[in-house]
Amino acid sequence: MSYKIETTSTKNFKIIGVLTFDTVINAGEEGIDLFEFVNDIRVDLQEVTHIDSAGLVLLISWMRYARLRNKSLQFLNVSEKILALAKVSDLDQIIPFS
């Protein structure tokens, strides 16, 4: 299982594939590198095919990164599976899903 982060415009990014324990370390670092020079970050999650609790932790770590640098971050096109996992983990009110 793998993932890919595509830059779709200056401030828009799309994640394709899986965000799991096996992929989040690399995905996290890659995301931070891509977000460095962007102040209004939008991450499209529509093509995330699988996510586990480590994937949710990744989203939270990106939120922390953005907050500490006064950047705006939104997660777009969130699937019902991601929302359900966030609800079970009581994170649905913390993560900025749009």
UniProtKB/TrEMBL annotation:
InterPro entries: MlaB-like_STAS, MlaB_ABC_Transporter, STAS_dom, STAS_dom_sf. It comes from the Bacteria. It comes from Candidatus Nitrosacidococcus tergens. PROSITE patterns: STAS. Transmembrane segments: none annotated. This is Sulfate transporter / antisigma-factor antagonist STAS. Residues 13-98 form the STAS domain.
